[in-house]
């Protein structure tokens, strides 16, 4: 009888490996001696040691080719939250994740690490030092988050020691760093349009922002700790910088670092939230006639005006997690990586 050759544990696939987090993850995996298959809807770079498979993760056959001889899968693909496309979020994050799980089990993959989000427990009201014991949001702040909840549930439920398929979910919060396509570019665009003059609320709300290399570190630790006897099987873990910061201090440090003025004038939270809701409703109603995307969406206003920071005690205890890059150094490295976004350039 032929014995099944177990794929090398240093052979992995990164679904979403062309994206911001995915590419940082791929680079670190290569440094650590892994061979990497990237599966993504687009190819954004080339690197020795990486095989690219371009395709949609809803296509099982395409996935099966990319997962051949792979023992470990990182799933960090998702449509961008700013796309605000309910059908797309459902198709990719829910149906697509079901397909990824099926493909993993058919291909004999042994471990899967999902990039979830700490926002799966956020309902737009304060969370201070929230643990993983918090229930999933009953009223998530947007469709993106709603589908991230379903996605996480699917992946954790698929963990099956008897069948040799182990899963874990990493919940980062507010990822930032070089090549980030969201946080800094949106911030700078808003500043360039003269709209970053205002602080929403009294400006004292504390938030987690997580430097991308710390998020990568959390993912790789999770993969390496994922064994049948480990407490992390089928569980979710917050990964942050463990340094909650005032939302508006963080934004000001980024802006000032790039040569823009820090916001100074205060606006009441509920007034801005109400206006954002009204604008969002208008944009949805008028979508067939005019396409406009408000900068201050209800989701962004809620994130900018409330406390939302999370405990990483469970990741410290179960997998020895400790952030590798401080917030101060992360901000410095990020600012230096965007010379083209500096004021006046
Ligand atoms: N950025 C953040 O602050 C946070 C992010 N997360 C999660 O981290 C993960 C990575 O996020 P981030 O790196 O910021 O996002 P990116 O958009 O940079 O990366 C996601 C990648 O997945 C690709 N992708 C989208 N749809 C598909 C599909 N159907 N099939 C294959 N590939 C697809 C994207 O392609 P394309 O660009 O063409 O759509 C992109 O290359 C996501 O799961 C996100 O939910 C969690 C918490 C915070
Ligand atoms: C215009 C300003 C009020 C805000 C500019 C910065 C924002 C673009 C970002 C601040 C917090 C960020 C954040 C995310 C995206 C970018 C911000 C809204 C996520 C929604 C990305 C995906 C997640 O899973 C959760 C993140 C929370 C924080």
UniProtKB/TrEMBL annotation:
Topology of the protein relative to the lipid bilayer: Single-pass membrane protein
Catalytic activity: a 3beta-hydroxysteroid-4alpha-carboxylate + NADP(+) = a 3-oxosteroid + CO2 + NADPH; a 3beta-hydroxysteroid-4alpha-carboxylate + NAD(+) = a 3-oxosteroid + CO2 + NADH; 4alpha-carboxy-5alpha-cholest-8-ene-3beta-ol + NADP(+) = 5alpha-cholest-8-en-3-one + CO2 + NADPH; 4beta-methylzymosterol-4alpha-carboxylate + NADP(+) = 3-dehydro-4-methylzymosterol + CO2 + NADPH
Pfam families: 3Beta_HSD
Annotated transmembrane regions: 270-290
Family designation: Belongs to the 3-beta-HSD family.
Keyword Signal: no
UniProt keyword Transmembrane helix, yes or no: yes
GO MF term (any one): 3-beta-hydroxysteroid dehydrogenase [NAD(P)+]/C4-decarboxylase activity
Biological process terms in GO annotation: cholesterol biosynthetic process
Organism: Umbra pygmaea (Eastern mudminnow)
Assembly behavior: Homodimer.
Keywords, ordered alphabetically: Acetylation, Cholesterol biosynthesis, Cholesterol metabolism, Endoplasmic reticulum, Lipid biosynthesis, Lipid droplet, Lipid metabolism, Membrane, NAD, Oxidoreductase, Steroid biosynthesis, Steroid metabolism, Sterol biosynthesis, Sterol metabolism, Transmembrane, Transmembrane helix
Subcellular location as annotated: Endoplasmic reticulum membrane; Lipid droplet
Name under which the protein is recorded: Sterol-4-alpha-carboxylate 3-dehydrogenase, decarboxylating
